[in-house]
Amino acid sequence: MITDAETICEMEAKEMAEAVEEFMREWRRWIDTRPDLSIEYGRPGMVWWKLLDALALADSRLREAFIRGDRSPVSMALYHRFRLNMILGKSDRVTA
Question: How far apart are alpha carbons 67 and 37 in whole angstroms?
Fold first, then answer.
């Protein structure tokens, strides 16, 4: 028999996995964009702005999945370290 707590944990784990996948996909799309192809009149064009918007939305989803309502400075610092390590391909795990 599965308890409500177990169901919630599974849902949160699934949301986190999906948020990580979405963030990394949008990050790669934004990084891989050639700015010279999306320049209009000397400024970034719509392609660049749309990719930046998608990245911001993915970042917001990932942040909410990570902090789960705790907006303390410590929680936000942990999130930023997690996101940076994820982008750099580093692990957050402690090695002994």
Answer: 36
